[in-house]
Hints:
Elements lengths: L1 H19 L3 E9 L7 H12 L4 E2 L10 E10 L4 E17 L9 E21 L2 E19 L12 E18 L2 E10 L4 E8 L1
Antiparallel strand pairs: 1-3, 1-9, 2-4, 3-4, 4-5, 5-6, 6-7, 7-8, 8-9
Amino acid sequence: xxxxxxxxxxxxxxxxxDTDIPKDEFGFSLGFGTQVxxxxxxxxxxxxxxxxxxxxxxxxxxxxxxxxxxxxxxxxQISNPIAVGxxxxxxxxxxxxxxxxxxxxxxxxxxxxSIYVMPAVRxxxxxxxxxxxxxxxxxxIQWQNMEIRPNxxxxxxxxxxxxxxxxxxxxxVGAELGHKNCHIFFEVGYGICGVVNLGVHFxx
Length: 204
């Protein structure tokens, strides 16, 4: 009798916990260290301006040339640990240059922008009170646009300025803290969203 009562209490507690888990969730994030920094076409363009045009990298500062992303995401909880959804956003990689002994200074840079959309799966592997730890995987498509400024230099590169490529992101570890309807989160991973990702989730 005691054992049966204990099992019933545990089962009702688990059901209550499942009920407390929000079914729909959306959020916004800012990422640093996006994968588009290492894109092959972007690096080919950088090699071109350095070797063929004699440009020298001239940017400075702790946040220079790290690549950033700004995104939004939506998740639907399909079971206690698993949620599926969609993430999309904008990623940017930019490198500034100068020419030694240039008489008339003119701004020079290589910039790659990307718009991406990816289906996503998130697995929550720890949940206690207001804390959640999770991992996620995303795979989709991105539309890239690359520019050299001044634009007159772009005509002779022979490299693509517009292309469509695979987009991916693996969030190895994410930590979320907050009350039932609003959470702040921090993620570490690799891909188009960045090595470090910060943001906020809202539950419906």
